[in-house]
Protein backbone atom coordinates (compact mmCIF):
# COMPACT_ATOMS: atom_id res chain seq x y z
CA UNK A 1 0.00 0.00 0.00
CA UNK A 2 1.33 3.45 -0.97
CA UNK A 3 0.61 6.38 1.31
CA UNK A 4 1.85 9.93 0.73
CA UNK A 5 3.87 11.50 3.53
CA UNK A 6 5.32 14.90 4.35
CA UNK A 7 9.11 15.48 4.35
CA UNK A 8 11.11 13.38 6.80
CA UNK A 9 8.39 10.73 6.62
CA UNK A 10 5.91 12.67 8.76
CA UNK A 11 2.22 11.87 8.41
CA UNK A 12 0.85 15.30 9.38
CA UNK A 13 1.76 18.98 9.17
CA UNK A 14 1.09 21.98 11.41
CA UNK A 15 1.19 25.72 10.72
CA UNK A 16 -0.09 29.02 12.10
CA UNK A 17 -0.88 31.86 9.70
CA UNK A 18 -1.21 35.16 11.58
CA UNK A 19 -2.03 38.58 10.13
CA UNK A 20 -1.06 42.21 10.56
CA UNK A 21 2.41 42.24 12.18
CA UNK A 22 1.62 43.66 15.62
CA UNK A 23 3.66 44.04 18.80
CA UNK A 24 2.18 40.84 20.26
CA UNK A 25 3.96 38.96 17.47
CA UNK A 26 7.18 39.36 19.46
CA UNK A 27 5.82 37.19 22.26
CA UNK A 28 4.13 34.87 19.78
CA UNK A 29 7.29 34.24 17.75
CA UNK A 30 9.15 33.53 21.00
CA UNK A 31 6.49 30.92 21.78
CA UNK A 32 6.80 29.32 18.34
CA UNK A 33 10.57 29.24 18.63
CA UNK A 34 10.39 27.71 22.10
CA UNK A 35 8.60 24.69 20.65
CA UNK A 36 10.43 24.61 17.28
CA UNK A 37 7.25 25.40 15.34
CA UNK A 38 6.82 27.50 12.20
CA UNK A 39 4.55 30.44 11.43
CA UNK A 40 3.47 32.41 8.39
CA UNK A 41 3.15 36.13 9.11
CA UNK A 42 1.13 38.24 6.69
CA UNK A 43 2.28 41.85 6.77
CA UNK A 44 1.22 45.30 5.53
CA UNK A 45 4.45 47.14 4.83
CA UNK A 46 2.74 50.53 4.49
CA UNK A 47 1.30 50.34 8.00
CA UNK A 48 4.64 49.22 9.42
CA UNK A 49 6.17 52.47 8.21
CA UNK A 50 3.69 54.54 10.22
CA UNK A 51 3.50 52.11 13.19
CA UNK A 52 -0.26 52.33 12.71
CA UNK A 53 -2.42 51.65 15.78
CA UNK A 54 -6.09 51.16 16.56
CA UNK A 55 -8.40 50.38 19.47
CA UNK A 56 -9.53 46.77 19.85
CA UNK A 57 -13.20 46.14 20.65
CA UNK A 58 -12.16 45.30 24.23
CA UNK A 59 -10.61 48.76 24.61
CA UNK A 60 -6.94 47.80 24.33
CA UNK A 61 -4.58 49.53 21.89
CA UNK A 62 -3.16 47.40 19.09
CA UNK A 63 0.00 48.72 17.45
CA UNK A 64 1.88 47.64 14.33
CA UNK A 65 5.51 46.64 14.51
CA UNK A 66 8.03 49.08 13.10
CA UNK A 67 10.26 47.96 10.24
CA UNK A 68 13.27 47.91 12.57
CA UNK A 69 11.55 45.50 14.96
CA UNK A 70 9.99 43.36 12.25
CA UNK A 71 13.12 42.78 10.17
CA UNK A 72 14.92 40.47 12.64
CA UNK A 73 11.80 39.03 14.30
CA UNK A 74 10.53 36.64 11.63
CA UNK A 75 13.79 34.84 10.88
CA UNK A 76 13.01 31.15 10.43
CA UNK A 77 9.37 31.89 9.62
CA UNK A 78 7.54 32.82 6.44
CA UNK A 79 6.66 36.42 5.61
CA UNK A 80 3.74 36.89 3.20
CA UNK A 81 1.96 39.85 1.61
CA UNK A 82 -1.24 41.18 3.20
CA UNK A 83 -1.58 44.28 0.93
CA UNK A 84 0.18 47.58 1.45
CA UNK A 85 -2.47 49.32 3.58
CA UNK A 86 -5.05 46.60 4.50
CA UNK A 87 -7.94 48.15 2.51
CA UNK A 88 -11.44 46.87 1.92
CA UNK A 89 -10.89 45.52 -1.58
CA UNK A 90 -14.46 45.19 -2.85
CA UNK A 91 -14.47 48.66 -4.45
CA UNK A 92 -10.89 48.72 -5.74
CA UNK A 93 -10.05 48.73 -9.44
CA UNK A 94 -7.64 46.26 -10.97
CA UNK A 95 -4.92 48.92 -11.02
CA UNK A 96 -5.49 49.71 -7.33
CA UNK A 97 -5.41 46.04 -6.34
CA UNK A 98 -2.21 45.47 -8.31
CA UNK A 99 -0.63 48.50 -6.62
CA UNK A 100 -1.56 47.22 -3.14
CA UNK A 101 -0.13 43.78 -3.86
CA UNK A 102 2.91 44.64 -5.93
CA UNK A 103 4.08 47.51 -3.73
CA UNK A 104 3.69 45.45 -0.56
CA UNK A 105 5.57 42.55 -2.14
CA UNK A 106 8.41 44.80 -3.29
CA UNK A 107 8.75 46.55 0.08
CA UNK A 108 8.66 43.28 2.05
CA UNK A 109 11.27 41.71 -0.23
CA UNK A 110 13.54 44.69 0.26
CA UNK A 111 13.05 44.70 4.05
CA UNK A 112 13.42 40.96 4.61
CA UNK A 113 15.88 40.28 1.76
CA UNK A 114 13.95 37.24 0.52
CA UNK A 115 11.37 36.38 -2.10
CA UNK A 116 7.77 36.83 -0.95
CA UNK A 117 5.66 34.03 -2.45
CA UNK A 118 2.41 34.10 -0.47
CA UNK A 119 -0.58 36.41 -0.13
CA UNK A 120 -3.25 36.56 2.58
CA UNK A 121 -6.49 38.42 1.87
CA UNK A 122 -7.39 41.32 4.20
CA UNK A 123 -10.90 41.14 5.65
CA UNK A 124 -13.33 38.68 4.02
CA UNK A 125 -13.84 39.92 0.46
CA UNK A 126 -12.28 37.87 -2.34
CA UNK A 127 -13.12 37.77 -6.02
CA UNK A 128 -12.00 36.50 -9.40
CA UNK A 129 -10.44 39.91 -10.05
CA UNK A 130 -8.34 39.72 -6.88
CA UNK A 131 -7.31 36.16 -7.73
CA UNK A 132 -6.23 37.31 -11.19
CA UNK A 133 -4.16 40.11 -9.64
CA UNK A 134 -2.56 37.67 -7.18
CA UNK A 135 -1.45 35.49 -10.10
CA UNK A 136 -0.25 38.50 -12.12
CA UNK A 137 2.00 39.49 -9.21
CA UNK A 138 3.60 36.03 -9.18
CA UNK A 139 2.32 34.73 -5.86
CA UNK A 140 2.23 30.96 -5.36
CA UNK A 141 -0.94 31.00 -3.25
CA UNK A 142 -3.67 33.16 -1.75
CA UNK A 143 -4.96 32.40 1.72
CA UNK A 144 -8.54 33.62 2.00
CA UNK A 145 -10.48 34.48 5.15
CA UNK A 146 -12.58 31.32 5.32
CA UNK A 147 -12.18 28.19 7.42
CA UNK A 148 -11.96 24.72 5.93
CA UNK A 149 -12.88 23.08 9.26
CA UNK A 150 -11.10 20.06 7.82
CA UNK A 151 -7.68 18.40 7.91
CA UNK A 152 -8.06 17.43 4.25
CA UNK A 153 -5.71 19.13 1.82
CA UNK A 154 -7.20 21.56 -0.68
CA UNK A 155 -6.72 21.50 -4.43
CA UNK A 156 -7.00 25.23 -5.17
CA UNK A 157 -3.91 27.08 -3.94
CA UNK A 158 -5.49 30.43 -4.83
CA UNK A 159 -8.48 29.91 -2.53
CA UNK A 160 -6.52 28.39 0.32
CA UNK A 161 -8.35 28.14 3.65
CA UNK A 162 -6.87 27.74 7.12
CA UNK A 163 -8.41 24.93 9.13
CA UNK A 164 -9.74 27.35 11.74
CA UNK A 165 -9.50 31.01 12.74
CA UNK A 166 -9.51 32.27 16.33
CA UNK A 167 -10.14 28.84 17.87
CA UNK A 168 -11.17 30.05 21.33
CA UNK A 169 -12.91 27.29 23.30
CA UNK A 170 -12.76 24.73 20.47
CA UNK A 171 -8.97 24.67 20.16
CA UNK A 172 -8.29 21.63 22.35
CA UNK A 173 -11.04 19.62 20.66
CA UNK A 174 -9.69 20.39 17.19
CA UNK A 175 -6.17 19.41 18.20
CA UNK A 176 -7.40 16.12 19.64
CA UNK A 177 -9.27 15.40 16.41
CA UNK A 178 -6.17 16.27 14.39
CA UNK A 179 -3.94 13.98 16.42
CA UNK A 180 -6.45 11.14 16.03
CA UNK A 181 -6.98 11.76 12.31
CA UNK A 182 -5.89 9.02 9.90
CA UNK A 183 -6.29 11.16 6.77
CA UNK A 184 -3.47 11.07 4.26
CA UNK A 185 -1.33 14.23 4.54
CA UNK A 186 -3.52 15.67 7.30
CA UNK A 187 -2.95 19.38 7.95
CA UNK A 188 -3.88 21.61 10.88
CA UNK A 189 -3.46 25.29 10.06
CA UNK A 190 -4.54 27.92 12.57
CA UNK A 191 -5.27 31.47 11.42
CA UNK A 192 -5.69 34.62 13.45
CA UNK A 193 -3.94 37.57 15.09
CA UNK A 194 -1.59 37.53 18.04
CA UNK A 195 -3.38 40.49 19.63
CA UNK A 196 -6.43 38.26 20.08
CA UNK A 197 -4.39 36.11 22.45
CA UNK A 198 -4.25 39.15 24.73
CA UNK A 199 -7.87 40.14 24.16
CA UNK A 200 -9.21 36.63 24.79
CA UNK A 201 -6.62 35.47 27.33
CA UNK A 202 -5.46 32.58 25.14
CA UNK A 203 -1.70 32.54 25.68
CA UNK A 204 -1.79 29.54 28.01
CA UNK A 205 -4.11 27.66 25.65
CA UNK A 206 -1.78 28.21 22.69
CA UNK A 207 1.29 27.21 24.68
CA UNK A 208 -0.44 24.01 25.80
CA UNK A 209 -1.30 23.16 22.19
CA UNK A 210 2.21 24.03 20.96
CA UNK A 211 3.74 21.81 23.64
CA UNK A 212 1.51 18.91 22.60
CA UNK A 213 2.18 19.37 18.87
CA UNK A 214 5.95 19.60 19.36
CA UNK A 215 6.00 16.38 21.40
CA UNK A 216 4.53 14.36 18.53
CA UNK A 217 6.87 12.40 16.26
CA UNK A 218 4.35 12.22 13.42
CA UNK A 219 3.76 16.00 12.96
CA UNK A 220 6.02 18.27 10.90
CA UNK A 221 6.03 22.05 11.52
CA UNK A 222 5.89 23.83 8.13
CA UNK A 223 5.27 27.30 6.74
CA UNK A 224 2.43 27.79 4.29
CA UNK A 225 4.78 28.13 1.32
CA UNK A 226 6.62 24.96 2.33
CA UNK A 227 3.29 23.12 2.35
CA UNK A 228 2.22 24.57 -1.01
CA UNK A 229 5.51 23.86 -2.74
CA UNK A 230 5.64 20.32 -1.39
CA UNK A 231 2.11 19.64 -2.60
CA UNK A 232 2.94 21.10 -6.01
CA UNK A 233 5.87 18.70 -6.24
CA UNK A 234 3.75 15.78 -5.03
CA UNK A 235 1.12 16.57 -7.66
CA UNK A 236 3.73 16.04 -10.38
CA UNK A 237 4.57 12.52 -9.20
CA UNK A 238 3.53 9.53 -11.30
CA UNK A 239 2.35 6.78 -8.97
CA UNK A 240 1.39 3.29 -10.08
CA UNK A 241 0.88 0.03 -8.24
CA UNK A 242 4.56 -0.87 -8.68
CA UNK A 243 6.49 2.39 -9.09
CA UNK A 244 6.80 6.06 -8.15
CA UNK A 245 8.38 8.61 -10.47
CA UNK A 246 9.33 11.95 -8.95
CA UNK A 247 9.18 14.61 -11.67
CA UNK A 248 10.14 17.49 -9.37
CA UNK A 249 13.27 19.01 -7.84
CA UNK A 250 11.96 18.17 -4.34
CA UNK A 251 12.44 14.90 -2.49
CA UNK A 252 9.09 13.19 -1.93
CA UNK A 253 8.20 10.85 0.91
CA UNK A 254 5.92 7.83 0.93
CA UNK A 255 4.96 4.95 3.15
CA UNK A 256 5.29 1.60 1.38
CA UNK A 257 3.55 -1.10 3.38
CA UNK A 258 4.22 0.85 6.56
CA UNK A 259 7.87 1.77 5.90
CA UNK A 260 8.76 5.40 5.14
CA UNK A 261 11.05 6.09 2.19
CA UNK A 262 12.13 9.06 0.09
CA UNK A 263 12.07 9.24 -3.69
CA UNK A 264 14.89 11.60 -4.59
CA UNK A 265 14.35 14.60 -6.92
CA UNK A 266 13.88 13.60 -10.57
CA UNK A 267 14.29 9.93 -9.67
CA UNK A 268 12.03 6.90 -9.55
CA UNK A 269 11.46 3.84 -7.39
CA UNK A 270 10.30 0.39 -8.46
CA UNK A 271 8.95 -1.98 -5.81
How would you characterize this protein structure?
This protein is of the alpha/beta class and 271 residues long. The chain has two domains: 11-235, Glycoside hydrolase/deacetylase (TIM Barrel, Alpha-Beta Barrel); 238-271, no CATH class. The protein has helices at residues 24-34, 45-50, 67-73, 94-112, 128-136, 171-180, 195-199, 203-214, 224-235, and strands at 2-5, 12-19, 39-43, 53-55, 61-63, 78-81, 118-120, 141-147, 160-162, 164-165, 186-192, 219-221, 238-239, 243-245, 252-256, 259-263, 268-270. The strands form five sheets. Strands 2, 3, 6, 10, 11 and 12 form a six-stranded parallel sheet that branches. Helix 6 (171-180) links the parallel strand 10 and strand 11 (186-192).
Amino acid sequence: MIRKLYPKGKEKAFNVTFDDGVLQDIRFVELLNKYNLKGTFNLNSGLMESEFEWTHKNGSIVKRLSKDKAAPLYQGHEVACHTLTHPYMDDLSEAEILYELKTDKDKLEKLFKREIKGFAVPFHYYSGLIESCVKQCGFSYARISEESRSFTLQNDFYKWKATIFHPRNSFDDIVRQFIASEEELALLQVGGHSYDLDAEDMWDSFESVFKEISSRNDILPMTTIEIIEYLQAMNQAEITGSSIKNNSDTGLWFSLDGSACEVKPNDYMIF
